Amino acid sequence: MRTRRTRLLAATGLALAALALTACEDGTGARDEGASKPATTTTTPTPTQTQTQTPSAEKPAGGSTAEPGTTAGSTSGSSGSTGGSGSTGGSKSDSSSDAAPVLCNGSNTKVTAQPVARPLNHMLITVENTGSKTCDLTYFPVLRFDEMQWVPQGAEATQPQAVVTLAPGESGYAGVLLAAADGSGDGGTTGHKLTIAFQGMTPNSSGGASATPSLPAKGVYYDSSLTVTYWQQNMDDAINY
Predict the structure, then answer these.
(1) Rounded to an integer, what distance in angstroms lies between the CA atom of residue 228 and that of residue 154?
(2) Angstrom distance (rounded) from CA 21 to CA 114
(3) Burial of 175 by CB count in 10 Å (0-12 exposed, 13-18 middle, 19+ buried)?
(4) Which residues does residue 190 pair with via DSSP β-bridges, in sequence order?
(5) What is the pLDDT of residue 219?
(6) N or C: which end of the chain has fewer CB within 10 A?
(7) What is the pLDDT of residue 214?
(8) pTM recorded for the entire structure
(9) At 24, phi and psi to the nearest 5?
(10) Phi, psi of 157 (to 5 degrees)
(11) Does a structural domain hold residue 63?
């Protein structure tokens, strides 16, 4: 009887040990409180720990992340400032009003030639600036009646101290001695057509288009005494030569 009881206890002990082992492996049973070695536990990261370990969005080196379009806007502003320097061109444009005067000639003036009663045998030439720019009358008018082959000279005593300058609408003058009052001149003849040429900036150079003012129907008598004054700013200075 003792041998059978011993075998039964031994079998029963083995069965209990197997049952306890199976329970530990599948997690459905209680753990053996009498085990000398503690079971190893595994820690699973919580959602909060996972988010903490996730790196934040990358930022550009050297500063904070800018709003979209900020950089482009700054560049545009700089370009606009540079363009402002163009104001210098405006000043140059304004200086164009200080352009040098042009020469008076038949293209920008109205020219008349009229014999006068006093002094005797004199004629007055009037030049009116009909252009939009100030013009200069240089030296003296070059006269030619009909097909005459000689050129009357300017009276040096009438040369003004400064060039006669005409603003738009202003007039300049020259006096002409047609014939000697005492009859000392020779080669007297009557002219029916008069051509007046204008001189340039140097003596005897061309100043531009000529003028052909009308003469009285009977013509104008002249002789070898024919002389002309330099251009004058004042009518009296021209006619009283």
Answers:
(1) 5
(2) 148
(3) buried
(4) 221
(5) 96
(6) N
(7) 97
(8) 0.60
(9) -70, -35
(10) -70, -15
(11) no
What pLDDT score was predicted for residue 137? 98
Q: How many domains does the chain have?
A: 1
* Cα separation, 112 vs 133, whole angstroms: 20
Is residue 207 within 8 A of residue 231, CB to CB? The reply is: no
The whole-number pLDDT of residue 181 equals: 87
Give rounded-to-5 percent helix, strand, coil for the chain: 30, 20, 50
For residue 54, is it within any domain? no
As averages over each run of 10 residues, the pLDDT of the chain (241 residues) reads 45 46 44 44 44 41 43 42 42 49 95 94 97 96 95 94 96 96 89 97 94 96 96 94 78
User: CATH number of the domain that 110 lies in?
Assistant: 2.60.40
Structure-block tokens of residue 216: 């009285």
Identity of residue 8: L
Residue type, position 102, single letter = V
Among residues 240, 145, 128, which one has the least CA distance to residue 188? 145
Nearest Cα to 27, choosing from 41, 13, 15?
A: 41
DSSP annotation of 96 reads G
Domain range enclosing 138: 102-239
Look up residue 240 and give its two tokens: 């009283």
Q: Please state, in angstroms and rounded to a whole number, the distance separating the CA atoms of residues 21 and 6.
A: 23
Tokens of 156: 């040096």
In a domain, 29, yes or no: no
In a domain, 131, yes or no: yes
Cα separation, 152 vs 180, in Å, equals 14
